[in-house]
Amino acid sequence: MIPEENEISEETPIPNEDEISINYVQDSTMWNRNETHVDDVFAYAIATDVINENDYIPKTLEECMHRKDWPRWEEAIKAELNSLEKRHVFGHVVRTPINVKPVGYKWVYTIKRNENNEIVRYKARLVAQGFCQIPGVDYVETYSPVVDAITLRFLISLTISEGL
Known about the structure:
Largest sheet: 2 strands, antiparallel
Order of helices and strands: HHHEEH
Number of helices: 4
Strand content: 5-15%
Mean pLDDT: 77
Strand order of the largest sheet: 1-2
């Protein structure tokens, strides 16, 4: 048996299988979002915490450059550019024809953590904005060969066992 709300004290044990819910508003029909005011000092404190929080993931390069951890983000950006250069992703610069709109790009930033929620590394990726392309106008067909690692191992072992 659960005691009534006014009977609950610090000594009253609460069963583990029951939920505890707190009703912040006595009558939900009378609550009006437009009349509810948040304390300015509380709002300022929350905003300051969010701004100063190192865990906030930046959306733009400009935001990265104004952060205290900019050297870590810069290192991640350089690592991504070196990886792209190593794989020969970028070719020679070619003049774009007048009727062709080039695909844009965007930097995507993430923070990788371990099981203790400690920051392990900063990661930056340069991604193409392919969503702006129109089928039949900007491209005719797409094909991306994808193979599962297990399937690849099977095919290699089959090739070796058959002496092919």
